[in-house]
Amino acid sequence: MNVLPADPVMADYERTRAVFDWRRERSRLAELPDGGVNMGYECVDRHLREGHGEHVALRCVARDGSVRPVTYARLAQDSSRFAHLLDALGVGPGERVFTLLGRRYELFTTVLGTLRAGRVVCPLFTAFGPEPIALRMELGDATVLVTTRESYERKVAPIRSRLPRLRHVLLLDLDGDPPADTLALPALTASAPKTYDVGPTASADLALLHFTSGTTGTPKGAMHVHEAVLAHRVTAACALDLREGDVFWCTADPGWVTGMSYGVVAPLALGVTTVVDEGDFGPARWYGILSDQHVTVWYTAPTALRMLMRAAPRDGALPTERYDLSSLRFAASVGEPLNPEVVHWGRRALGLPVHDTWWQTETGAIMIANFAADPVRPGSMGRPVPGVEAAVLACGEDGRAAIDEGHVRLLRQPGAQGELALRAGWPSMFRGYLHEPRRYESCFADGWYLTGDLVSRDADGWFWFVGRADDVIKSAGHLIGPFEVESALMEHPAVAEAGVIGRPDPLAGAIVKAFVLLRPDVHAGAELRRELHAFGRRRLGPAVAPREIEFVEDLPHTRSGKVMRRLLRARELGLPEGDVSTLETREPSGTPDTTAKGS
Ligand code: WT7
Question: Which CATH number fits domain 13-388+426-435: 2.40.50.100, 3.40.50.12780, 3.40.50.1820, 3.40.50.720?
Fold first, then answer.
């Protein structure tokens, strides 16, 4: 395995940054005969070519705790079979293969087979309900879906008629006849050849499509290309401290970007062993995996760490007293702010501080991190990874970076707050929002990618998260678009309008809260509230549905007619209502409407 140039990796931050060069990193990839790069080839074929076929790629932990090791050679065979199947089904280059799968072996063979065959992977979250699934498959022009019989029958069959372009539904389960218009995957792959020659792939060919949510409109399909694997490798080595011989465990769900970039691609590209846990979260299960699998590097989420922190036993015993965590060398988290308390708890309970890392679906890989060689600054996201330049931009009244005749203004004084921006051009940068060029262009100014996050930077160059500039909700690390929730609620006949915000929550960071304005003559009672909760869960799934519903008599609007979520949030938190100059006025006198809370 050859990873980062600087050895010891990142021991000297300034020096590593100074000598770092993406072009040199690019030369470490296994170049295909045609000069291109293929993400799947990097994860599988290259290890066989370099004689590491018998190294364990995956350790799949079943729900019952049994463990199945899978070598790189086996992964190559099974993903080859899937790649052949795509050819046989006539799925064209660049067409989209959607997955609705949890962490399980077949996810890996599907993803790697698709990438090696030059088709595009689009993962969906298994805790989505039918509505978010239908919307994403429609927007993403799904050609193929790989899922389980159960997920198909519950979530996809009811919306299948909305997906005329979906040609093949491949189900993993063996038992019984497949439902109408579906195929049994195991039967199809069993006889397919065990080797597959990765064809010509340009480094800028589309590899992954990840849907992410914005404040308004439909979810955005962030497009990632094959050469993003370069950033996956480099960042996993320098920010997650991943090295040869490591046993890595990324707990993220493969329906989101972390579960794909670091649950699948990065560890395999670096040729390490990665743990795949099919089970659900539970303190005993998780500590058991860390201990029994001798995990050395662990990448997880703040919400999960807070849940572990809360689950401390009554006798006060530390996890290190009950479980052998001596293999664990490095722990990191992502997706939401990591409160300092968790960093301190990590030191006490795991014997290690937790290292915060920051990135987004759009950035494709870690951009800012607390590195292994540096003391962690609790509460800080860290410093930019080598090859990435980050800046704080002065904001205008709308809370986003001010753009003056095409130019932005960099804030250099320590502690100044502004929008976090990244100098465009790193390999895993998204290359577009599918079918939405204008939405993509509006993310860039003056050569910078504008992240939509508000931050400050201290005198030593460490970044500190302040908040988001928009209304999207981060709940348990998952990004939820309020518009998607509002639209679903408004489909209910009793609902006239809804405004959805994230209400701060000590465990999940935020929970989805809906303010609902009912149609006239509808009675706002406990029964209707229950019905709306069930309606939301049925349509949106448990991960997206509102956890709290409050009936209101009025909702505040901007003059252009949009629900003012910012005001709903301020009222919910008892904060000053701030600038309400764009608030709709009901009376000619111009008095802002502040009666909306329904009290
Ligand atoms: C948003 C991106 C990156 C993979 C998972 C999320 C928030 C991310 C941190 C952090 C505070 C964070 C930001 C960002 N976020 N990491 N370390 N501290 N906030 O990807 O779903 O696209 O969400 O998550 O607001 O913009 P995503």
Answer: 3.40.50.12780
Sign of the alpha-carbon dihedral angle for 408, 409, 412, 414: negative
Question: Mean pLDDT for the chain?
Answer: 93
- The pLDDT of residue 579 is 60
pLDDT in tens, 219-238: 999 999 999 999 999 999 99
CB 259 within 8 A of CB 249: no
Structure tokens at 184: 């049994």
Q: 478-555 adopts what CATH topology?
A: GMP Synthetase; Chain A, domain 3 (3.30.300)
Which residues make Cβ contacts (< 8 Å) with residue 330, sequence separation at least 6?
240, 241, 296, 297, 298, 352, 355, 372
Residue with the bigger pLDDT between 399 and 267: it is 267
Helix (H, G, I), strand (E, B) or coil at 526: helix
Cα of 109 to ligand 1 centre, how many Å?
28
Give residue 584's pLDDT: 54
Read off the pLDDT of residues 384-393 as tens digits, 9 standing for 90 and up.
999 999 999 9
| Closest among 234, 293, 304, 291 to 262, alpha carbons compared | 234
pLDDT at res. 71: 98
The tens digit of pLDDT for each residue in 67-113 reads 999 999 999 999 999 999 999 999 999 999 999 999 999 999 999 99
Our measurement of the distance from residue 50's CA atom to the centroid of its chain's CA atoms, rounded to an integer in Å, reads: 31
* Ligand 1 mutation pick, 479, 480, 484, 544, max ligand atoms within 8 A of CB: 479
Greatest distance between any 2 Cα atoms in the chain? 79
* Residue carrying structure tokens 């990796």: 9
**Long-range CB contacts (< 8 A, 24+ apart) of 431-438?**
431/204, 431/206, 431/223, 431/224, 431/225, 432/223, 433/220, 433/221, 433/222, 433/223, 434/139, 434/140, 434/209, 434/220, 434/221, 434/223, 435/139, 435/221, 436/220, 436/221
Contact 122, 136 (CB under 8 A): yes
CA angle, 554 as apex, 550 and 557 as ends, to 5°? Answer: 110
Q: How many helices (H) and strands (E) does the chain have?
A: 20, 26
Sequence ranges of the domains in the chain: 13-388+426-435, 389-425+436-469, 478-555
The CATH number fitting domain 389-425+436-469, selected from 2.70.20.10, 2.60.120.10, 2.30.29.30, 2.30.38.10: 2.30.38.10
Probe target for ligand 1 pocket from 370, 388, 465, with the most ligand atoms within 8 Å of CB: 465
Indicate the SS3 state at residue 57. Answer: strand
Q: What is the mean pLDDT of residues 361-368?
A: 98
- Of ligand 1's listed atoms, the one at least distance from the Cα of 468 is 25
Per-residue confidence band for 2, with pLDDT thresholds at 50, 70 and 90: very low
